[in-house]
Amino acid sequence: MKLVIDANIPAAEHCFGHFGTLTRVPGREINAAHLRDADALIVRSITQVNDKLLADSPVRFVGTCTIGTDHIDQAALAQRNIDFASAPGCNAEAVVDYVLSSLLTLAERDGWLLRERTVGIVGVGNVGSRLQVRLTAMGVATLACDPPRADEEGQAGFHSLDALIERCDVLCLHTPLTREGPHATYQLLNAQRIGELAPGSVLLNAGRGDCVDGLALRSRLSGKGDITAVLDVWEAEPAIDAGLRDLVALATPHIAGHSLDGKLRGTWMIQQALARHCGQPSEFTFADICPPPALASLHLQHALPPEDALRLCMRAVYDVRRDHDALQRQTQHHGMHKGFDDCRANYPLRREFATLNVQLSGEAIALEGLLRGAGFPCSHSEDF
């Protein structure tokens, strides 16, 4: 069996080597020639898997080690009788970590408190639902918009996008990209809606770049300049708009979900799917491929202002400013296309909040509810 695999998929040899011969190719470079004698294709989000790529190939299985599937033409796969698997939820926790790190960073820069804001969550799937749970546990008010789920489950608990724009201080987008149908998300945040954002609002997009009208957002940021934007996803990646990049408070190269844990979870989920496709038992567990963290615990002994404590623990694991700075540096030195892809291909090791146990003693025990809500395991320590 021959497998063509994105070169950036971690633990590929460990998870897929026993199936046959692996050919590792950078995701943007995978083409039809690579698949002429391949039985399986394993990708991440940057490879466009469509009829043109699969023409004349014997591929019988396609897997994407990601939550999103808009880069996969599933109709073409079905027509060719090709089995398909994705990894829903694999990096959802990492994306929530990214959102919390971003919002706490903005709060520190601009002098506001997250717990005093109302956060609107657009798209309450694997990521949005987890974000809502964590924010609620942290004492942050949230409103949710998800028309497809509202249609299925009823309107209770859901609000319109326009209601979120009117009532929320922070708007977080976590939608897939759909271009047609009653709930299309292409340019969901269009010029009109961007114009309706209240002064002082924060717009964060960690869903899909084409869900926001980039030209309209750039116009609002360069004109009135009275809102703040955080973008991890962009139109026309990797050739993103340099003008918009320079106006965004936190600009990152589509890495919100790039924790080691999330990537490995995606690899493992596709390994399980391929084993089922081949009719083979799988003896792998996620624990078999996930290494222990370099920093396993942190001890807080004294009381801190709540959001200072959150930032301290978050930055011990992940600091979004590193990724913002890397995008600026790499795109300025190497050009937009290469710099953007270099950030992704050479992304540094990052773990999830859940890998850090926070030991609490003395007055710091009062922070337990907040830290657990944010996603950190906590324990009590009387050693100090």
Task: For the structure shown, list the relevant keywords.
384 residues; alpha/beta; Rossmann fold; Ribosomal Protein S8, Chain: A, domain 1; 3 domains; six-stranded parallel beta sheet; globular; cytoplasm; NAD
CATH class group of the largest domain: Alpha Beta
What's the assembly state of these chains?
A: single chain
Largest sheet: 6 strands, parallel
What percentage of the residues does DSSP assign to strands (E)? Answer: 5-15%
Radius of gyration: 21 Å
Structural class: alpha/beta
Mean pLDDT: 95
Q: Can you tell me the CATH topology of the largest domain?
A: Rossmann fold
What is the architecture of the largest domain at the second tier of CATH? Answer: 3-Layer(aba) Sandwich
Topology, number of strands = 14
State the end-to-end CA separation: 57 Å
Describe the global form: globular
Total count of helical runs of at least 4 residues = 16
Annotated CATH homologous superfamily of the largest domain? NAD(P)-binding Rossmann-like Domain
